[in-house]
Amino acid sequence: MTGLTDRAVGDPPFDAAGEIEHARQRWEESMLRQVDGLREAVRRRPPEILAHQCGAAWDPPALVLPYWDRRLRLLWPDLEPLAEDRRPCSTFDTAMLLYYLRTADGAPMADRWIGFRELPDGAFYHLAYQRYSGDRLVRAFGNDGAGFDGAAAAMDGLRLPTLAEHAFAFQPFPRIRLAAILWPGDEEFPARGSVLFDAAASHYLTTDGLALLGGGLAGRLEKASSPKPPGRGRAAGR
User: Are residues 95 and 176 in the same domain?
Assistant: First the structure.
């Protein structure tokens, strides 16, 4: 494994936002060299079957699927993703989409949450992953459960009261579900955070890709908690 999961246990503290951005850039550079091969691998699969296996819609000549808060069309066979607002995707997002399409095998979501250590090859790197996912949530929100809830609501997170008081589910891809959890601290225990995965996630993305997805969720929540300039808030009724 490479990228975000290559730090050893006991490394000195680091800036999570800077580390995840650095790893993102390295991963993007690597994917730029592989993106043509990814497209070729995806093209070998009949688009109707692929759409069924990855949870997309086949609307000839395009696959249509949501990715975070965007609805994307990937024209076949070019497989260049385009959002409804006509903005092109970054190389990073394009690679994530192609990896998702290449890996998807149609397995149903498990409706069971697992930690990073339970993913393939995840056990050795789970402490590093925790530092830029769950620990990043703690750095961003600390004991502010209400602030965490507000950021999750701004991202249309689904509350998960059976997991914890401050727990929300997010679905960046049709068949990948993540859970972000914050346990505010008290006089006896410090605050804790965690980003979990539906147990079927490895049927749809590599472990490195899931690491980036989980760290990215923590970053999105942190960003959603930041004050927005006047006139840039969410529309009423959302």
Answer: no
Q: Are residues 159 and 119 in the same domain?
A: yes
Residue 238 belongs to a domain = no
| pTM for this predicted structure | 0.83
Examine residue 16 and state whether it is found in any structural domain, yes or no: no
Among 69, 87, 103, residue at a domain's last position: 103
Q: Residue 18: how many CA atoms within 13 Å on its side-chain side? A: 3
Q: Are 56 and 48 in contact (CB under 8 A)?
A: no
The DSSP letter of residue 236 is T
2/77 Cα distance (integer angstroms): 29
Query: Under a CB-based contact definition with an 8 Å cutoff, are residues 151 and 225 in contact?
Result: yes
**DSSP helix/strand/coil, 230:** coil
Averages of pLDDT over each 10 residues, the chain, 238 residues: 36 52 67 83 96 97 95 94 84 91 97 97 93 96 97 98 97 98 91 98 95 94 77 36
> Which helix (H) or strand (E) is 82 found in, with range?
strand 81-83
Element (H, E) at 211: helix 207-224
Judge if 220 and 138 occupy the same domain. Answer: yes
Environment class of 37 (CB within 10 Å of its CB; exposed 0-12, middle 13-18, buried 19+): exposed
What total of structural domains would you count in the chain? 2
Domain extent for 202? 108-224
Burial per residue of 2-15, b for 16 or more beta-carbon CB atoms within 10 angstroms, e otherwise: ebbbebeeeeeeee
Q: Enumerate the β-bridge partners of residue 194.
A: 181
